[in-house]
């Protein structure tokens, strides 16, 4: 009963996390200027880590790194659940 109403929300969150996890930094993110490896700033200058863009790029990289194994387990559980209970 608890997951009857929240099930769709959980599925949507997992799908969004999967979408972020499969983004290719070389093929997609770097083309739009959202890659982590950007040109080095000039001597004495610092890279702005406080901007929303920099924080979003770091969040995407963190999700890709930390959620790889948990997403495999979560996706497997959801697939088995869907196969058994429909």
From TrEMBL:
The keyword ATP-binding does not apply. GO terms for biological process: endoplasmic reticulum to Golgi vesicle-mediated transport; protein transport. The chain crosses the membrane at residues 6-24, 65-84. GO terms for cellular component: COPII-coated ER to Golgi transport vesicle; endoplasmic reticulum membrane; Golgi membrane. Keywords: Membrane, Protein transport, Transmembrane, Transmembrane helix, Transport. Pfam families: Yos1 (PF08571). It is found in: Membrane. Belongs to the YOS1 family. This is Yos1-like protein.
